[in-house]
Amino acid sequence: xxxxxxxxxxxxxxxxxxxxxxxxxxxxxxxxxxxxxxxxxxxxxxxxxxxxxxxxxxxxxxxxxxxxxxxxxxxxxxxxxxxxxxxxxxxxxxxxxxxxxxxxxxxxxxxxxxxxxxxxxxxxxxxxxxxxxxxxxxxxxxxxxxxxxxxxxxxxxxxxxxxxxxxxxxxxxxxx
Amino acid sequence: xxxxxxxxxxxxxxxxxxxxxxxxxxxxxxxxxxxxxxxxxxxxxxxxxxxxxxxxxxxxxxxxxxxxxxxxxxxxxxxxxxxxxxxxxxxxxxxxxxxxxxxxxxxxxxxxxxxxxxxxxxxxxxx
Lengths: 176, 127
Prior knowledge:
The complex is a heterodimer of chains A (176) and B (127). Chain A has 176 residues and is mostly helical. Chain A has seven helices and no strands.
């Protein structure tokens, strides 16, 4: 039950940060709030037993993304033009939320040991990791060994993104 | 009501997701859209990580004790990949914002549409 309160407090904090981030017009504040959002999300991941995800989120989500956003803000205007509350998008968001809520009601109970997700390949990985790969951290052994090709695919995506950024910002494609 | 308690984490994640979604579709400023996208993305990560949670379990690092319950490592691996890919795509988005600003002098959607329409009209009247 204590987990419930820690989780609920963290998610309330996240909601507050997200709400402020879309309300404010000074983009520096918005970007810093988005960094804070990632950091609190990392804390939530620790509570949900995903320690590897937590430190990746803290380093990459809160660190690198915030640096990228600040670098962008040094080149573009740092204030947003004030906007009125937009009713159609708000309605769309509410409608989507309602549909998702209906769908979520069909999911297994939160934290249920017998949920289908825990009875597929996950037990094999948890049992096999010690003998097959001899790494106690199962996340590492799945990432680097069982699903090594997926990680290779991820690297290809990151490489492609790096090329795209260089092409967009590099000298070749610019009209002088 | 029992549903509400059994799925509370998912419902709160949906609320967060929709705040991000609203920022993406309602805000005209492109940096704000990117921040909205980041919030949306992180909420999806939370949804996945919530699914991997096992009550009374611990992080999937083997303790050697056969009775220990572990959280499901698969969503963790998926989301590790998604975080890194997400930052890569965000970097491309910011690069595009910088180029749009260099070319048009604005990063507000509505102003950008006006400038592009004016350019198209000018081209049409020249032709």
